[in-house]
Design a protein that fits this description.
Chain B: One of its GO terms (cellular component) is plasma membrane. The complex is a heterodimer of chains A (263) and B (306). Chain A is an alpha/beta fold. In chain A, 37% of the residues lie in helices and 24% in strands. In chain A, strand 9 and strand 10 form a beta hairpin. The radius of gyration of chain A is 19 Å and the shape is globular. Chain A starts with 11 loop residues before the first strand and ends with a helix. Chain B is built from 15 helices and no strands. Chain B has a domain of 212 residues. In chain B, helix 2 packs across helix 10. Classes of the chains: A alpha/beta (263), B mainly alpha (306).
Chain lengths: 263, 306
Amino acid sequence: MSGPSTSGSALSLLEVRGVAKRYGGLAALDGCSLTLETGRITGLIGPNGAGKTTLLNVMTGLVRPDEGRVLLSGRDVTAAAPHRFAALGVARTFQIVRELGSLTVFENLLLAPRRQSGEGVVASLFGRRKWWAEESANALKAKALLERVGLYKLADQQSGGLSGGQKKLLDLARALLLEPRLILLDEPGAGVSPPLKLEMIRLVRELNAEGVSFGLVEHDMHLVGELCDHVHVMAEGRLLVSGTFGDVVKDRRVVEAYLGVAA
Amino acid sequence: MIAYLITITILVCVAALVGLALNLQWGLAGLVNFGVVGFVAIGAYAAALLAPEIGWLPAMAVSAALSAAFSAGLALLAIRLEENYLAIVTIGFGEVVRLVILNEPWLTNGALGIADIPRPFAALGDAVGGDAVFLVFAVALVALAFVTLEGMARSPFGRALRAIRDDATVTSALGKNVFALRVRAFAVGGAVMGIAGALHAYYLTYIDPGQFTPIVTAYAFMAVIAGGRGSNVGLLVGAGSIMALLEGTRFLKDFITVIDGVQLSALRLGLIGVGIVLLLILRPQGLAPEPRRRTSDVLPDRTTRS
């Protein structure tokens, strides 16, 4: 039951195979293999230091693994640059919210859409008509998204002034403007007030129903239980157990990994 | 007195061009460039050497292109470095340029400098008399640079640069090619610095390596800090204020007779320092805020809110 990717690979959206990453003598990832499947909300849990965030960084090109491969819909993207992942349909949020503080909430969203012609030096000056049309279309999408996450009233505020939970929602809304197939959330519940957490759960469920797949690193077991169809438990840089939330929390090895009981 | 004011205004124009360029690189994109003077010097020498051969306008274009090429080259090598290391590399570049100019007399005439650089609109200038024609030329160049760079700052390009300044990792996760955007910002800034150098050479008609010391870089940073990082309007005010402080304090000797000229010239730099410190305490955001895209700009149906 702990074998990686027991289900059919036809459903595999993002897969890591035998990924290893060492920082000095410390192996953050040590031959980790697992799969995020299309259409699912997959949880990644495990005790602190299990390598969850490093794995997320490997899955989005921010960290290049020493060994192993990353496959997106079967295509090898191990060496792709971080900005390529967004183009391939993989978006992510960050554990410690990294809002672009000097940009307004609205600008944070307008930044995200792909293929903006106004980002070229010459086009920014002489292609104004074209990029302004794009900007107007993006603005409507941004407005709809901000209304959806309840941040539209703060649209013209500097994003640095938002609360922790609002920043997480902004982070998610920004990722959505990339129109991704897969969103990787790094601890979406951390530091979020209970009402906003419910908001987050509702939003992720809605988006999943609309066809977006999710990968979710989280310590809040309530959130994981509420959201995840499938859970991978990691420990010491490897996949320990996979299964439904109900199955894995009853697994003896998982309890041991969390409590540190010698096997 | 009028002639003196015209001179000051032209020098402000040169400083404003350099400042506008740095405001794109550092103010907007967060790239520390301590080698500003090197790019200005490349522009000045290219203009000085080429203007007699090919005319002032093509020479100025070459100045911009050459300085942009050096900027892009340096950026390709060094822009992956963290902020502090980029600062060190650019300081090194500025010094290398100055030392090459000083020690390669076959090209630059070394410490003796280059004299008799032709001025644009020289015939017209002589007919009118004084530097008035050149002043109009300089102001027009600043206006052109301002419109260009302000247009960039308000475009998606400028917004992406501001995002990179705030957090490059997040910006790359949002699908922006951070490396390419940084190189572009550095190259465009370099081009404007080259033009500033050419204007400097055309105005003084004589250049030597002593004019291109790191103080030029320092003035550019002062102007950007005073004006507010990212704001081109603020930059123009900042560059004007810095030059006004620098030049205005010359007249202190008329009012303060107890201090002699040498001591006063040392005091002047101190006064500028005090001015900047006061500004940072009283108005840390600078004189003008950087431009933002409001919802009401793109969503016309939205009622403007306070």
